[in-house]
Amino acid sequence: MLSFSDKNQVLNVVSVVGLGGIGKTTLAQVVYNSSDVIDHFERRIWVCVSDPFDEIRVAKAIVEDVEGRAPHLFELETLARKIRTYVRGNKFLLVLDDVWTEDCKKWENLFNSLKTGSPGSTILVTTRNERVAIAMRSLYNLPLGQLSCHVSWSLFKKIAFFDRKKEECDELEGIGKSIAEKCKGLPLTITTIGSLMRFKNSLNDWKAVLSSEFWGLGEETEEGPFPALMLSYYNLPPNEKRCFSFCAFFPKDYIIEADNLIHLWMAQGCLISKDDVAMEAIGQEYLQNLAMRSFFQDLVREKNGEKILTLKMHDMVHDFAQYLTKNECSVIELNNDFTRKMESLDKKPRHLTIVRSEDSCFPDNIPNVEKVLTFWVQSFHDSPPIRSQLDRIEPEFFLRSTCLKALDLSRNRIGELPIEVENLSKLKYLNLSHNPLCELPSNLCNLYNLQTLKLSACNHLQKLPEEIGKLVNLRHLEIDRTDNLKVLPKGIGELKSLQTLSKFIIVKGDNNATCGIEDLGNLNNLRGCLKIEGLGNVADADVAKKAQMHKKIHLTDLHMDFGNSARNRIHDEVIEALELNENLQSLAISSFVGTKFPKWMMNLTKLQKLLLQDCQNCIKLPPLGKLPSLATLDLEGMNAVKFIGLDFSRDPSNVDAKSVFPKLKKLKISKMENLEEWDLIGQEDGGMFRDGDFEIMPRLRCLKVSSCSNLKALPNVLLQRVPLKKLRIDNCTLLREKYRKGTGEDWKRISHIKKIRVS
Fold first, then answer.
1. Over the stretch 89-121, which tens digit does the pLDDT of each residue have?
2. CA–CA separation, 2 vs 4, rounded Å?
3. Which of 145-149, 492-496, 735-739 is predicted least confidently?
4. Exposed, middle or buried by CB within 10 Å (0-12, 13-18, 19+), for 379?
5. How many CB atoms lie within 10 A of CB 157?
6. pTM to 2 decimal places
7. Distance between CA 601 and CA 654 in Å, rounded?
8. Cis, peptide link before residue 384, omega less than 30° from 0
9. How far apart are CA 248 and CA 369, in angstroms?
10. Model confidence pLDDT, tens digit, residues 493-503
11. Residue 421 burial (C-beta neighbours within 10 Å; 0-12, 13-18, 19+)
12. What contacts 25, CB < 8 A, 6 or more positions away?
């Protein structure tokens, strides 16, 4: 491909053609991420095209890939101009993955906008259809064939025999080779069957798979991987089968948020609590099982590798799910042909996704909507919102859609939700995120079955309904990025099943209509992330204790924001009364106006991340060096601190400790204008500890110091004994001179560090 891009032709097209599941996307990913390609092209862009083809969506995806955020543009010509600007004078690689349309006219605008790139710019296309490659004027086609028997067996063995004893592998090898042969050299088939066999332990189980009638399914469907997928699907428990087939509800190549998928499964009754195990935990278990059987790919997990955050379905797996549901799950583009497509379906959809184009009206008149259980109008509108009559929802829609259990209207520029929404009495999931709603109708609180209410990025939202406490089954209330939401109704404290609450707001004064800190007392099922705003308005420690923060054993990430309150000695007592559970993993304390940090901080043995921000009256830092799990520490705006000394590293009551900050990897100190000295162990000027007494920050890799204009020096022990890989000093007058490259007084003390930036 690189040899083609060296030619003088402005735009080269190279196509990878092959069956579904043959490895086209995988090959394209290897090419895209190779060091030679990275060095050769000035820009690299990846877009999943899929079917149905939408010029505007593809153009927006290109702009989003370059800018790193979704553009607020909806006209094709405007997007085309932006693309022309981005690629002008640059040699670029654009991957168009999973292209289906054979209509070359649909590509003309996009191709013309790409011709401003430098000669040698290349488009890499993956497609199942050679006619697509011809339509896109491909200069070179690479047809992908099946894997050889040897390679097929090697891949199968690697997956199916993982973690097995040698004797067991020897017993299963013969029949294993026969099963691998049945996979016909298709990588997706091999990984799917290999994943299935990994959980089959007896020889009889392996024989049953080899002789299964499902191997003949491929002849009927003309889809190679289908027999393997059917075999794997057949071996799933009933609830997991239902959960998998529901995923046909999502468009192809869609990045699925794991929590959102689990909430949708809950709404359909696919997840049932048992033995005090929450539905959400069962949902994660199902996700893990389906992923291990290769039904999901491109998994993104939490840093500890346990929880799945996002996932995708291979397009062939999506086709298989669609095959299973017989149009019960349908994804249909909203255009002039919409009604005909709906009426032509053999089976009326129960789970319906409508892909809404930029200039189309909200789809109100939907055939057979009375029987739809899940309805999603997929739109791509983002803030700033532009209200239009095109986005108006007619009340009749809610009067007809009485069977709905899940409704997703996010990003549809909805400015007002009709009061007829209360007719959706079976509704368990409602997503209104990214809409310019100022308020919600009060009768929304009559939807007693509601489990999930998503209002993320509703920036115009000013209040929630006063009777929200009536939603007794509510488990997830997402109100992050709602900057104009300044108060919460008292009823929040009655939602004892609540697990997700993005933020909790405390207002000043005794107001019976709004939440106080005591209303957190009943919310002991909260988990994940929570931000508490307005802690400076808490009256005293006795009130703070009623929050029972120590009982919130599932919270992992907490931000305690005291707001712009005046200095008051009560704040020291209040923060001490808000003792947190030791399971917490991330903590931020901002705008705290007390004079000392709470003692309970030293009990947070699982804390991995800590931010202390704008705590203006604290003259002394707590002994954070004793926290055994702390990996990231950020100190910002601590302007009363003039000296960081031994007490920051060590607990004075535990002088026998052999290591301080044992797991710290990143340390950032910023906007501490009064900080003058930093002595980590007291030995810099002949202090009390000798070199070698204990380990100090043995895992520190990154140190950033910025806007500390009075800091005279960095600790020598930190520069000499710690394995730093990255040092950054910004806007620090004295440090800049001291460590200036080549000429600074102490440049030699830092010159061994791999990445240094002093500015």
1. 888 899 998 888 888 787 888 888 888 888 888
2. 5
3. 145-149
4. buried
5. 20
6. 0.82
7. 16
8. yes
9. 18
10. 999 999 999 99
11. buried
12. 97, 98, 126, 314
Cβ(191)–Cβ(153) under 8 Å?
Answer: no
Render pLDDT for 147-197 as a digit per residue (tens, 0 to 9): 889 998 999 999 989 888 888 888 888 888 898 888 888 888 888 888 888
Contact 167, 58 (CB under 8 A): no
**What is the spatial distance between Cα 119 and Cα 90, in angstroms, rounded to a whole number?**
9
Decide: 396 and 449 in contact? Cβ < 8 Å.
no
Among candidate residues 216, 152, 159, the one with its CA nearest the CA of residue 184: 152
Out of 27-41, 286-300, 341-355, 546-560, least confident range: 341-355
Q: How many CB atoms are located within 10 Å of the residue 148 CB?
A: 10
Beta pairing class for 429-431 and 452-454: parallel
Of 123, 120, 101, residue with least CA distance to 13:
123
- pLDDT band for position 398 (50/70/90)? very high
Report whether 387 contacts 411 (CB < 8 A): no
Q: Are 134 and 177 in contact (CB under 8 A)?
A: no
For 187-236, the pLDDT digits (tens) are 888 888 888 888 888 888 888 888 887 776 654 444 556 778 888 898 89
Where does 251-386 show beta strands of DSSP type E? 256-257, 297-301, 308-312, 329-334, 351-356, 374-378
Would you give the DSSP letter of residue 277? Answer: B
Q: How far is CA 539 from CA 569, 617, 618, in A?
A: 11, 19, 21
Long-range pairs of 715-722 with CB within 8 A, sequence gap ≥ 24: 715/678, 715/679, 715/680, 715/681, 715/684, 716/684, 716/749, 717/680, 717/681, 717/683, 717/684, 717/691, 718/680, 719/746, 719/749, 719/750, 719/753, 720/749, 721/691, 721/696, 722/696, 722/697, 722/698
d(CA 5, CA 296): 34
Partners of residue 728 on adjacent β-strands: 704, 757
Nearest-5° angle of CA 157, CA 163, CA 166?
75
pLDDT confidence of residue 631? 95
- Alpha-carbon Rg for the chain in angstroms: 30
3-state SS, 631-700, equals: CEEEEECCCCCCEECHHHHCCCCCCCCCEECCCCCEEEEECCCCCCEECCCCCCCCCCCCCCCCEECCCC
